[in-house]
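Provenance

Sequences were taken from public entries as deposited. Structures were produced by running a predictor on each sequence independently, with no templates supplied. The record for Transcriptional regulator from Geofilum rubicundum JCM 15548 is shown for reference.
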Amino acid sequence: MSHPSKENIGGVTRIKDIAEKAGVSTGTVDRVIHNRGKVSPQVRDRVLQVISELNYEPNVLARALVSRRNYRLAALIPDPGYDEYWEAPSKGVDEAQEQLRPYGVEVRKHLFDQNDVESFKAAAESLSDVGYNGIVVAPLFYRESLSYMRRWSQEGIPFNLFNTHIPDYKPLAYIGQDSYQSGLLAGKLMHFGSKGGGTCLIAHVDEDVPNSSHLIKKEQGFMDYFQEKGLSDFKTISIDLKGYGDEISFHKQLDVTFEKYPDILGFFVTNSRAYAIAAYLQKRALKNILLVGYDLLQKNIAYLNEGLIHFLINQNPKGQGFYGVQMMADHLLFNKQVEPIRYLPLDIITKENVQYYI
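Predicted structure for Transcriptional regulator:
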């Protein structure tokens, strides 16, 4: 029967235990842990090795409780009432809030309509006047986001970005997908699923593309895949489709698209609305049209299972909201050095494996 080691009685490692095993003073261990004062590289490496061996973690909860400071964070995110996709990031924010509540962290959501730039500006103004300790934001509107990021930077308010990476004013961190890489992946999936060349349409459904840097990067990645592979028999064309909520008008746009490009191989939908094109393909009884999109919305999953959507790329939206808040807390409460970019995995979802993701 094994017994707790002398250095780790009861499963709790103390600074004293580390000091004894490393052959240094507790003061030296403290300087290494908090990265302050002068410590020789050899001693620092030895202390860090012992810390790793003993699985030492500072009692951050006790430290936070002793400080008795409360932190207020703002989450500036699209309203899920307008688009089901944003339910997942919102739930991620909620989960992070629950985990951080004992540390004195309060997260308040400021919601906006993702299709209305004035709604975004109003929500951003409302939080800018409150005096939050940190902000987590999905900056869907590039130009408008820049002015608020500039203001927050000047006021010394740290902010994390998720969903869309805008590095201009040095956010504390970006959490989300590598948009360009996801476009490359979509290109590979389109190529993999094809039986020959044809026209591949990059469909932006109800988006303000010039003001959405993540969509531009997705489009570029998709196009670059075919260009870099020298696949000259594949033609990539970007199209904007508007008003998917009006089925008659939306389907007329697609009718015109098929008349204009009779050799359509497939669609790459750059947002979560692949289901809107799948509904059209089903109604027109069009077969052998590849459809690649994003996100595990119920409508997307239904069309995936019916074989009308062939691939979905999961961007882990819940994780984006969760880590956006958690990493801000790591910075504010625990003075941890936060990685400036945290790319989340791009999972390829098919009808054969979708049940493991829902």
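DSSP finds 13 helices and twelve strands in the chain.
The domain at 6-57 is CATH 1.10.260.40 (434 Repressor (Amino-terminal Domain)).
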